[in-house]
Specification:
- The chain has 355 residues and is of the alpha/beta class.
- It folds into two domains: 198 residues, Isopropylmalate Dehydrogenase; 134 residues, Isopropylmalate Dehydrogenase (3-Layer(aba) Sandwich).
- Helix content is 42%, strand content 17%.
- The protein contains twelve helices and twelve strands.
- The strands form two sheets. The protein has a ten-stranded mixed sheet with strand order 2-1-3-12-11-4-5-10-8-9, with helices on both faces.
- The longest helix has 19 residues.
């Protein structure tokens, strides 16, 4: 197979974990006879410094031509002024909108070998295997905004069509998994959530009768995600709730450095990125955990390139490396030896060769 993959390293540890993803893609291509043409472009703070724009036209042109996009991270203290006219996060939001990627998939499947590194008791983690589907291009992040000297407002708005399409994605995934879907909202307070709840119920009843649907308020979901994570199969929710809940879910997997994500639209092209931030405090120190970026590569192979066997092999390689004792500092037990970014990447690629 031949594919064009856009690499957007971004800021902080982004270049380091993107380099890890690139190395894994090269290893997959070599072992399975594929040809992946990979080109890098600027985004975020690095793009602001170089071009004065968080999403330069050349970056958007590359991504528009690519079969898939792998992103590192954006942002950092250098660009953190909330009054700045241009901020790194704008580049990411604009890219999601331009690519039409409205469904953000975040799988959470803690590895048993890392149970002791999680803040959650091991017995609560047993059997956890869930997928959060977050609506990505609507809601309060994209609504009209206003601010004056004495007040500010952010409009949260959803249309029926936006809710229908994300619920269809989530219900389709639930049908392929264990058949359970939890729709998370705040319908006791918000009109957008009342519409969300009504539309979700209509779509599942009409198009996915084999899927069991449960509605849950976001505050209850936040509690149950920690108290009984193994009870969840697929969770679907709006943009801001999904952003918060998936960061909370990282506690189940011991670290943000373990969790990948895929942002998908109507076609096969997707945007893939670890859910962690740019971690400027460890940037350039060979200390970042590359596993989330590598697992994002697995999702890229599966959802954009249709290479399911290769995707499974990458995920098995990460699990085997961890099972064999490979750790980065964020998931290492006290007194346990740990590897740097490059060492952990090499450990995964070594297991990939054994598959």
């Amino acid at each position: 197979m031949e594919a064009l993959i856009a690499l957007l390293p971004g800021d902080g540890i982004g270049p380091e974990v993107t380099a890890a993803g690139r190395s894994v893609l090269e290893a997959v291509a070599s072992r399975h006879g594929h040809r992946f043409e990979m080109h890098e472009a600027l985004i975020g703070g690095a793009a602001i410094d170089a071009r004065g724009n968080a999403l330069p036209r050349a970056t958007l042109y590359l991504c528009d031509r690519a079969d898939a996009v792998l992103l590192g991270a954006v942002g950092g203290p250098k660009w953190s002024d909330p009054e700045a006219a241009v901020r790194p996060e704008q580049g990411l939001l604009d890219l999601r909108s331009a690519l039409g990627v409205f469904a953000n998939l975040r799988p959470v499947r803690p590895l048993p070998e890392l149970f002791d590194a999680s803040a959650i008791r091991a017995e609560r983690l047993e059997g956890t295997d869930l997928m959060v589907v977050r609506e990505l291009t609507g809601g309060i992040y994209f609504g009209d905004k206003h601010r004056d000297a004495d007040s500010a407002s952010d409009l949260c708005r959803y249309t029926r069509a936006e809710i229908e399409r994300i619920v269809r994605v989530a219900a389709g995934l639930a049908r392929e998994r264990r058949g359970r879907l939890v729709s998370v909202d705040k319908a006791n307070v918000l009109e957008t959530s009342r519409l969300w709840r009504a539309v979700a119920g209509e779509i599942v009843a009409a198009e996915f009768p084999e899927v069991e649907l449960e509605h849950m308020l976001v505050d209850a979901a936040a509690m149950h995600l920690i108290a009984r994570p193994a009870d969840f199969d697929v969770i679907v929710t709006e943009n801001m709730f999904g952003d918060i809940l998936t960061d909370e879910a990282s506690m189940l997997a011991a670290s943000l450095g373990m969790l990948p994500s895929a942002s998908l639209g109507a076609g096969t092209r997707g945007l893939y990125e670890p859910i962690h931030g740019s971690a400027p405090d460890i940037a350039g120190k060979d200390a970042a955990n590359p596993c989330a970026a590598i697992a994002s590569v697995a999702m890229l192979l599966r959802y954009s390139l249709g290479l399911n066997e290769e995707a499974d092999a990458v995920e098995r390689a990460v699990a085997a490396a961890v099972a064999g004792g490979a750790r980065t500092a964020d998931v290492a037990s006290p007194g346990h030896a740990f590897l740097g970014t490059r060492g952990m990447t090499a450990a995964v690629i070594e297991r990939l060769g054994e598959d």
